[in-house]
Amino acid sequence: MSKTVKNNIERNLWVTIGIFLAILVVSIVLLVIVVRNEEATKGADRSIRLSGQSGFECEYAEAQKLYVFGDGVIKVTSDRVAYLTLSGNEVFSTSVSYNNPQCFINGSRCVVFDNGGYGFVVMDESGILYSKPTENTVQSAILSDSGLCAIITDSTDAYGEVILYYRDGTQISRWSSYNSGYPICGAFSDNDSFFALTTLNTSGAVYEPVVRLFALNYNNDSISTSDYALFKLNDTSILSYIDYIGNNLYTFSMDTIYTLRNDSLSQFGETFGSINYVRMVNDNIFVVYSDGVNQLNKLRVISSSGSSVYDSEVGSVVNAIASNDHNFALSIDNRIIVFNDSGDVISDVEVDEDIIRIGFTDNNRLVVVSTSGVHTIED
Which value, to the nearest 10 degrees, does the dihedral of the CA atoms of residues 186, 187, 192, 194 take? Predict the structure, then answer.
């Protein structure tokens, strides 16, 4: 056998081995994805009776007023806000006068506001931090990880206003939207260096979605804000949700994710039929969506690079979702599925009652508010 023929045989052999290894790697990756997707469709791992779990019982009407917070629950009514333990014992409370109280929770703090009314209260597990009236009707409230608060209100002479408050209730700034349209939603960056706001300008021939960035400027013990940037989107969609992963900004319309890169808003990943719920967990985006009306809900987990690490049907009716820094929980139909931040299913249980809300406690236990009361699901 000549040396040339021998070299050609060896080269072809190595090429064949390389192709085989490449196919093997791709097959393993596809197998992992298929296994992940099947986890959410094959059924629950176990069934539990919620009445047999620790917690406390209450009437359905009372359960609708409970939100998981800290290591207990907040009870929100039109005349009182109270913090209860998971045994149902009241720790503290404060009187309010709200027609339509709503709740926004971020980590160790919570803001309860009167949607369409004139006031809000901020609290943590130790007690009420501050309570404020507002000049105009409150539309929504946002808390940063460190406890800064943003209140979006109506305005008598503008499209709306955004008021920022320090952790002790001191007003930082007040911005009125005269040219950008109606304020929709907002988010603080992870290090509280920026506040992002979506608005909808309806003054032209077509709707114009806008994202405004405000810089938070720190000087010793004081904070001020300044206009930093404005971005317009060549679309007529409403940007109904906005959030950060680190300092990377993402905003969501009904069917598309946009991200801020190279000083412009651009589409991030594929489009959806209809985005129903979104949460940021660590460095991944969890999107509950459907392909159309009367279609099954799906869950897609998207990495910061834009690739889908999980995408599977999960069920028909979403009851509630919850997340913390490392986990995402989805109550759908009669199941509660918990994922870690990588998109792996770590728990899948079938329950025997209708779910109203779910949430994680400070020590990462999953708490369920059902039609019969509050229950803690242990691993």
Answer: -60
pLDDT of 137 > 90? The answer is yes
Angstrom distance (rounded) from CA 268 to CA 264: 12
Helix (H) or strand (E) holding 322: strand 318-323
- Average pLDDT, rounded, for the chain: 90
Higher pLDDT, 9 or 53: 53
CA 42 to chain centre: 26
Tell me the Cα Rg of the chain: 24
265-292 pLDDT, tens digit each: 999 999 999 999 999 999 999 999 999 8
Q: In this structure, what token pair is assigned to residue 292?
A: 């159309």
Distance CA 125, CA 109 (A): 8
- What is the side-by-side order of every strand in the sheet holding 297-302? 274-281, 284-290, 297-302, 308-315
Please report the pLDDT score of residue 23 as a whole number. 56
Contacting residues for 144 by C-beta, under 8 A, at least 6 apart: 106, 150, 188, 192
Side by side, which strands form the sheet with 171-176? 138-143, 149-153, 161-165, 171-176
* pLDDT number for residue 379: 62
Q: Are 313 and 296 in contact (CB under 8 A)?
A: yes
- pLDDT score recorded for residue 253: 96
Predicted structure pTM score: 0.86
CB 65, CB 76: distance < 8 Å:
yes
Residue 5 CB neighbour total at 10 angstroms: 9
Dihedral (CA of 302, 304, 307, 309) sign: negative
Q: What does the alpha-carbon distance between residue 234 and residue 275 come to, in Å, rounded to a whole number?
A: 19
DSSP string, 263-319: TEEEE-S---SEEEEEEEETTEEEEEEESSTTPPEEEEEE-TTS-EEEEEEEES-EE
Residue 176 neighbours by CB under 8 Å, 6+ apart: 155, 157, 158, 160, 161
